[in-house]
Amino acid sequence: PSPVFGPVQSRRLGVSLGINLLPGDGKRCTFDCIYCECGFNADFPSSSPFPSEQLVLSTLEDTLRGRKSRNLPLDDITFAGNGEPTMHPCFPSIVDGVIALRDKYYPDVKLSVLSNSTFISKAEVRTALMKIDNNILKLDTVDMEYIRKVDRPVGRYDVCEIIDNLKKFNGHVIIQTMFMKGRMNGVDIDNTSDKFVLPWIQAISEIKPQKVMVYTIARETPDPDLEKASPVELDGIVKRLKDKGISAIASY
User: Fold this and answer.
1) Chain centroid to CA 60
2) For residue 117, which of 142, 96, 146, 86 has the smallest C-alpha distance?
3) What confidence tens digit (pLDDT) does each residue in 209-221 have?
4) Each residue of 108-118: pLDDT tens digit?
5) Taking the CA of residue 162 as centre, how many other CA atoms within 13 Å lie in the half-sphere pointing to its CB?
6) Which of 53, 78, 191, 212 sits between 20 and 30 A of 236, alpha carbons compared?
7) Are strands 211-215 and 174-178 parallel, antiparallel or unpaired?
8) What are phi and psi of 19, to 5 degrees?
9) Per-residue H/E/C for the chain
10) For the sheet containing 4-10, what is the strand order?
11) What is the average per-residue pLDDT within 9-16?
12) In what order do the strands lie in the sheet with 180-184?
């Protein structure tokens, strides 16, 4: 649903109220990931406009006011949904409005964003993301061939530019990376081997994030042949990061 949904029980963020800045009748994203719980872009097209800033903020205020009056707990407010939240043309000003409402009703609640990083070349988007407590940005790999097979960017995408822009957050960024196994149209998509992990760790070392979240498939995926990475594999990746002094957690 759009623009406010939940709350849901998040593996990483606790009781999390979602803000969906995309139209509620389909999917709109600059990636077309083969593991996306929202399905493939082509299967859920949307021609509706983005929800207005006024609608987003008024709906959120109604929700927060109602929860506060019933003393319902809340840990987090997350920009997420059926697509890429930072593509909303009013994203920076919506962030400011959400911060004001959070401070009014639930001042101890954290703000988070789940983003694929494709709009962080825009200075105004980076400025907005710097205001968010948990600035969670995707970097699944540094291998462009893998990115084209798995993340499937819509339009131009240069992973080196993405890494350079991730560095501009000066540590105020949490990197999220999906590790998985299995096949897609008969092609192996396992990114848990040293071939993928070691160059990725080098990039993480250069970005210097406050934390890294490694995770694997938790919900139904549009391709049935994808498989979860094992807890042993995820824990091994976390250990490698920690050995380099990088804070990291795994979600199985």
Assistant:
1) 20
2) 86
3) 999 999 998 887 7
4) 999 999 999 99
5) 23
6) 78
7) parallel
8) -115, 115
9) CCCEEEEEEECCCEEEEEEECCCCCCCECCCCCCCCCCCCHHHCCCCCCCCCHHHHHHHHHHHHHHHHHCCCCCCEEEEECCECHHHCCCHHHHHHHHHHHHHHHCCCCEEEEEECCCCCCCHHHHHHHHCCCEEEEECCCCCHHHHHHHCCCCCCCCHHHHHHHHHCCCCCCEEEEECEEEEECCEECCCCCHHHHHHHHHHHHHHCCCEEEEECCCCCCCCCCEEECCHHHHHHHHHHHHHCCCCEEEEC
10) 4-10, 14-20, 76-80, 110-115, 134-138, 174-178, 211-215, 248-251
11) 82
12) 187-188, 180-184, 226-228
Structure tokens at 71: 């003393």
pLDDT-derived band at 146 (thresholds 50, 70, 90) equals very high
Contact 67, 2 (CB under 8 A): no
Residue 11 has pLDDT above 80, yes or no: no
Residue 12's pLDDT band, with cuts at 50, 70 and 90, is confident
Q: Which two tokens stand for residue 22?
A: 């995309």
Q: What is the pTM of this model?
A: 0.93
Provide the pairing of β-strand 76-80 with 110-115: parallel
Asked whether the beta carbons of 41 and 60 are under 8 A apart, the reply is: no
pLDDT, residue 61, reads 98
d(C-alpha 145, C-alpha 143), whole Å: 6
Q: Which of 206, 195, 151 has its CA nearest to residue 177?
A: 151
Query: In the chain, what percentage of residues exceed pLDDT 70?
Result: 100
Q: How confident is the model at residue 24 (pLDDT cuts 50, 70, 90)?
A: confident
